[in-house]
Design brief:
Radius of gyration: 19 Å
Number of helices: 2
Structural class: mainly beta
Order of helices and strands: HEEEEEHEEEEEEEEEEEEEEE
CATH architecture: Beta Barrel
Largest sheet: 4 strands, antiparallel
Helix content: 10-25%
Strand order of the largest sheet: 1-20-19-18
Strand content: over 45%
Distance between the termini: 49 Å
Number of strands: 20
């Protein structure tokens, strides 16, 4: 048994090394020049399944979403604190046909997760999860489909002001503001310019910081009073795509001042969609 385990470990180590080399080379090819970052944390293989959609924080931990999962790790990203591989419960599937977790946001011990019914666009919901255990609390809110006509890809919570923001379009010219306590619609904010393919965002200092999957996976801020849009930086400089998401995908982001001076932390999927990377920017 020991001999078999040793052989298995050697084979797995070689396979893992090949994956790292392959994904690293392809990512470099399809990203081109990248915007300077301070550090990064990457995973490859099965771990990517739980870190493929968005990232948020409560100041003590990072939380990741996968299409069906939620994961909680320490700020060094080297220890898993909690994992829910079946965050879309049978109840959510049966009642809302929920099949996909997108963007997430954290406030006061709760993870707010945007769930969709996989391109049917009939049941856009915000489901609430316990931040300690990542278990579904049994509470969710269904958003109006006359606003969320293409599901609900992301949610950003401004807990201090008791509101949350969402959007539904591939090409955003407006976003929607809801009351946090019950997700009652409050108002529409018209943007000063179009922002393509927002994947996730966080609120800080009266602004929505948005990570996108546009051609350069750019990061924007949106002033929540005026709707003024400002591009902060392009994550990559390689713009050519044969098909949608060709060569990887830009995902969401979170905001957290850290000891190394970094502030913006973005998630992106690699060229083969078998690795994901959390990058830290000042």
């Amino acid at each position: 048994m020991t001999a078999f385990a040793n052989i298995f470990n050697k084979i797995f180590a070689v396979f893992f090394s090949v994956l790292l080399t392959l994904t690293g080379g392809l990512n470099g090819l399809f990203e081109g020049e990248v915007y300077p970052y301070e550090s990064e944390h990457a995973v490859v293989g099965l771990e990517t399944l739980t870190r493929s959609q968005d990232v948020t924080t409560d100041g003590e931990y990072f939380y990741f979403s996968g299409k069906h999962a939620l994961e909680k790790v320490n700020l060094s990203c080297d220890e898993i604190i909690a994992l829910n591989e079946k965050a879309i419960t049978d109840e959510l599937k049966e009642k809302y046909n929920s099949q996909h977790i997108g963007g997430i946001s954290c406030y006061d011990g709760i993870i707010y997760a945007a769930l969709e019914d996989s391109k049917e666009w009939q049941h856009p919901i915000i489901a609430l999860y316990d931040a300690e255990t990542l278990e579904y609390t049994g509470v969710c809110y269904e958003l109006p489909t006359d606003l969320q006509t293409r599901g609900v890809p992301w949610v950003a919570v401004d807990g201090e002001n008791g509101v949350a923001y969402t959007g539904d379009s591939r090409n955003y010219t407006e976003i929607y503001k809801f009351r946090l306590s019950d997700f009652t619609y409050l108002e529409t904010i018209t943007l000063s310019g179009e922002v393509q393919k927002i994947q996730g965002g966080e609120i800080s200092d009266g602004k929505l910081y948005a990570g996108t999957n546009d051609m350069t996976r750019a990061v924007f801020t949106i002033d929540l009073e005026s709707g003024e849009v400002t591009k902060l930086f392009d994550r990559i400089m390689y713009e050519y795509k044969l098909i949608d998401n060709f060569g990887g995908e830009g995902e969401g982001l979170t905001i957290l001042p850290m000891e190394d001076g970094t502030y913006i932390h973005t998630l992106q999927l690699g060229a083969l969609f078998i690795d994901s990377t959390l990058r830290h920017y000042k």
